[in-house]
């Protein structure tokens, strides 16, 4: 198992070692990441189509994802509420960022589009099975693994060239405290949920270690534990992002740390526009640092936990 961890982590590390100074090349890498995610999620849907008793398995997937989400969210909200009362971080809605990159509705539509890709994969797998007698399920899993290695290398390159110097990350005590609290409370939730889901302790921790990065957590977990558990991880982290879009406008003025932290890894990208619009400029660097740290931690932590 440890050798498998090294094999999967290697492209992530190699990608992180590559400096990119050409803006056009960086834009190409970003498009490559997005394209790889869509391809893998489509293949994950095709793999789901190959499960015996598909309807029953999908019902089980939804129930497990809902239970996992409820337990982890309860731990997150309690821990982040405690932190927000002690951290002294306040939003400044009088100094909002003009022209935020996208609306929360557009971002939510982008999230749901990824669900549509998984559904399309299931339909495609069933259609191929009906037409040819084989849904190419094994081929889909093999292709997904190959694209996964490419995706990890590109993500490593993204993280290296994100423009976040280590000094800036370490010195932002608010972002560091929020990231550590969100990570620790998520892992506690995963540990509590594991026996309820009839999972090993490390599998429960791995499912909780996506920290909202649904497009990656489902892929990594699915590669190791199969498409069903990959779907559970995907839906759990997707639900976090969707709830974050609702909570941020409601809570950021009174509990800024809670609102920023609950978004998890998405606070540096998908939920950042909502944080900008409702929390002002003071919250932006905190959200970026917190999201960056969680994004940096999530892939190696998931892979390490699944190797135990």
From TrEMBL:
<feature type="transmembrane region" description="Helical">
    <location>
        <begin position="134"/>
        <end position="157"/>
    </location>
</feature>
<keyword id="KW-0472">Membrane</keyword>
<protein>
    <submittedName>
        <fullName>Uncharacterized membrane protein YbjE (DUF340 family)</fullName>
    </submittedName>
</protein>
<dbReference type="GO" id="GO:0015661">
    <property type="term" value="F:L-lysine efflux transmembrane transporter activity"/>
</dbReference>
<keyword id="KW-1133">Transmembrane helix</keyword>
<feature type="transmembrane region" description="Helical">
    <location>
        <begin position="35"/>
        <end position="51"/>
    </location>
</feature>
<feature type="transmembrane region" description="Helical">
    <location>
        <begin position="6"/>
        <end position="23"/>
    </location>
</feature>
<keyword id="KW-0812">Transmembrane</keyword>
<dbReference type="GO" id="GO:0005886">
    <property type="term" value="C:plasma membrane"/>
</dbReference>
<dbReference type="Pfam" id="PF03956">
    <property type="entry name" value="Lys_export"/>
</dbReference>
<feature type="transmembrane region" description="Helical">
    <location>
        <begin position="242"/>
        <end position="264"/>
    </location>
</feature>
<feature type="transmembrane region" description="Helical">
    <location>
        <begin position="284"/>
        <end position="306"/>
    </location>
</feature>
<feature type="transmembrane region" description="Helical">
    <location>
        <begin position="213"/>
        <end position="235"/>
    </location>
</feature>
<feature type="transmembrane region" description="Helical">
    <location>
        <begin position="63"/>
        <end position="84"/>
    </location>
</feature>
<feature type="transmembrane region" description="Helical">
    <location>
        <begin position="169"/>
        <end position="193"/>
    </location>
</feature>
<dbReference type="InterPro" id="IPR005642">
    <property type="entry name" value="LysO"/>
</dbReference>
<feature type="transmembrane region" description="Helical">
    <location>
        <begin position="105"/>
        <end position="128"/>
    </location>
</feature>
């Amino acid at each position: 198992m440890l050798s498998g961890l090294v094999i999967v982590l290697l492209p992530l590390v190699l990608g992180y070692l590559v400096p990119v100074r050409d803006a056009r090349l960086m834009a190409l890498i970003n498009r490559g990441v997005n394209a790889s995610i869509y391809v893998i999620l489509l293949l994950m849907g095709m793999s789901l189509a190959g499960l015996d008793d598909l309807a029953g398995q999908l019902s089980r997937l939804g129930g497990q994802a809902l239970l996992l989400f409820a337990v982890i969210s309860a731990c997150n909200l309690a821990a982040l509420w405690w932190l927000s009362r002690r951290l002294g971080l306040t939003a400044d809605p009088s100094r909002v960022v003009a022209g935020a990159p996208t609306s929360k509705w557009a971002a939510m539509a982008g999230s749901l589009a990824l669900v549509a890709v998984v559904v399309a994969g299931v339909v495609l797998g069933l259609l191929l099975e009906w037409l040819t007698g084989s849904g190419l399920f094994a081929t889909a899993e093999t292709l997904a693994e190959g694209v996964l290695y490419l995706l990890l290398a590109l993500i490593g390159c993204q993280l290296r060239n994100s423009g976040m110097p280590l000094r800036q990350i370490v010195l932002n005590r608010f972002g560091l405290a929020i990231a550590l609290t969100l990570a620790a409370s998520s892992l506690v939730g995963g540990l509590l949920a594991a026996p309820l889901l009839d999972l090993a302790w490390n599998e429960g921790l791995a499912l909780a270690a996506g920290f909202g990065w649904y497009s990656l957590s489902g892929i990594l977990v699915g590669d190791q534990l199969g498409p069903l558990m990959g779907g559970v991880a995907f839906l759990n982290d997707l639900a976090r992002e969707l709830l974050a879009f609702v909570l941020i406008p409601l809570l950021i003025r009174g509990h800024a740390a809670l609102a920023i932290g609950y978004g998890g890894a998405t606070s540096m990208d998908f939920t950042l526009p909502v944080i900008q619009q409702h929390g002002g400029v003071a919250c932006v660097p905190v959200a970026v640092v917190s999201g960056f740290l969680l994004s940096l931690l999530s892939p190696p932590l998931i892979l390490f936990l699944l190797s135990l």
